[in-house]
Specification:
Helix content is about 15%, strand content about 40%. The protein is α+β, with helices and mostly antiparallel strands.
């Protein structure tokens, strides 16, 4: 077992009013702390979804676990072949290489704190998604940056059946 020790010297403080926000309803992402400020320890964002909105299609990360903490509302979360409903106060940690996805429950919005550990580049990933939404980048360009952002898309019949 190897031990990862992050390298950074200053306390990271992100004021809510100063955090960059990417997107708008139905999916809003507040960029909180990326791996560059935490010495690679973690990356964290806050994702707010309107009722039934998709947060992320099925994908996996080779180099990081992903933690989901429900601040409010309800969400459906795919982990492997299981889809679970998570509610305010629930925590889910998905290990590396495990397929996962998430969406707000059809009858509820969801407010989710997401943490990747160890940290991976996430801010530029979310900015790239925003450029796609705005028509500034082609949708297929996301496939070209999967390695850079350790975000590998895949199909999940279980998820597709629930989200048709």
């Amino acid at each position: 077992m190897s031990l990862f020790v992050p390298k950074f010297d200053e306390t990271v403080l992100v004021r809510d009013a100063e955090a960059e926000v990417v997107g708008q309803a139905p999916v809003t992402v507040k960029l909180l702390a990326d791996n560059s400020v935490s010495g690679g320890a973690l990356s964290t964002v806050r994702v707010t979804l309107t009722e039934g909105a998709d947060g992320a299609r099925p994908h996996l990360h080779h180099h990081s676990a992903e933690m989901f903490f429900l601040l409010d509302g309800e969400a459906e979360l795919l982990s492997g072949d299981d889809v679970v409903t998570v509610r305010r106060g629930d925590l889910v940690v998905v290990p590396p290489d495990r397929p996962h996805a998430f969406a707000a429950d059809p009858g509820s919005p969801a407010d989710i704190l997401i943490v990747f550990a160890p940290g991976i580049e996430r801010f530029e990933y979310f900015r790239h998604l925003q450029r796609i939404r705005l028509g500034e980048a082609a949708p297929e360009s996301i496939l070209e940056v999967q390695e850079r952002y350790d975000n590998h898309f895949l199909r999940s019949e279980v998820w597709e059946r629930r989200h048709q």
